[in-house]
Amino acid sequence: MAVLEEISQNLQRGKAKIVKELVQQAIDEGIPAKEILEKGLLSGMDIIGEKFKNNEVFVPEVLVAARAMNMGASLLKPLLADGDNTSAGRVCIGTVRGDLHDIGKNLVKMMMEGKGLEVIDLGTDVSPETYVETAVSQNCQIICCSALLTTTMSVMSDVVKEAEKAGIRDHVKIMVGGAPVTEAFCEQIGADKYTADAASAADAAVEICRSLAG
Ligand code: B1M
């Protein structure tokens, strides 16, 4: 599947327009959306991540690659959907305060929408107060927190505390994820559910909404 390799290569060079065209080409060739995402877009992002770690590329290169990733992923969004239009529940999602990484959060959002959940996207750099106020005012069943930095994951603990303070812990669940987050960390801070990837997060959210409903 040469086109997937081309997607990965062009994503690494930050060629957003070409990535978008290649993703469309892959779709037209009948390659499943999940495969385009994993073997094209995410594989390119992994290589950029490794190079970033080793100081072979720097913030500007990573930013253009991220833009290419988001543009390519936007074409896959409708194809990753389940096709069921009834709302499976409502969640709010954001990357925690101090953290600007949003690619993983956007993927989680996309997969959740694909499973029929209504997703309120709070963006990045989200304070514990904003998560909780949104969950209350918008009747969300789940608060979803993403963090990519070891220095920001502790904000998730503040989200749990803020939710306790607001007295919503019995009917609003808290899901956490992102590269440095683990199951053990989730338990330690008293959050409800950790998942390692976007697809598992979407499945878990649907399950939680179902159990809260009934
Ligand atoms: Co940043 N960055 N970055 N960065 N960056 C990392 C995270 C880093 C690991 C790179 C490295 O040094 N090896 C490192 C963190 C080190 C650490 O804390 N241990 C790092 C650093 C240090 C920084 C800066 C401090 C760099 C600097 O300025 N000196 C700075 C911080 C800025 C800030 O946030 N305040 C910074 C900046 C940036 C960019 C702006 C340039 C850019 C972000 C652009 C954007 O997001 N729009 C960026 C990027 C792109 C990365 C890497 C290269 C890629 C991250 C990514 O998008 N991965 C990253 C290196 C790496 O990860 N290899 C790195 C792809 C994405 C799909 O994966 O987000 O993990 P991920 O999401 C996964 C799962 O984690 C899960 O689902 C997704 C897959 O299915 N998931 C959830 C995510 N959220 C979930 C929530 C859930 C469940 C699952 O439930 C609610």
UniProtKB/TrEMBL annotation:
One of its GO terms (biological process) is homocysteine metabolic process. Pfam families: B12-binding, B12-binding_2. Coiled coil: none annotated. PROSITE patterns: B12_BINDING (PS51332), B12_BINDING_NTER (PS51337). Keywords: Cobalt, Metal-binding. One of its GO terms (molecular function) is metal ion binding. Residues 88-214 form the B12-binding domain. InterPro entries: Cbl-bd_cap, Cobalamin-bd, Cobalamin-bd_sf, Met_Synthase/Corrinoid, Meth_synthase_dom. Belongs to the methylamine corrinoid protein family. The keyword DNA damage does not apply. This is Cobalamin-binding protein. Residues 1-88 form the B12-binding N-terminal domain. SUPFAM superfamilies: Cobalamin (vitamin B12)-binding domain, Methionine synthase domain. GO terms for cellular component: cytosol. It comes from the Bacteria.
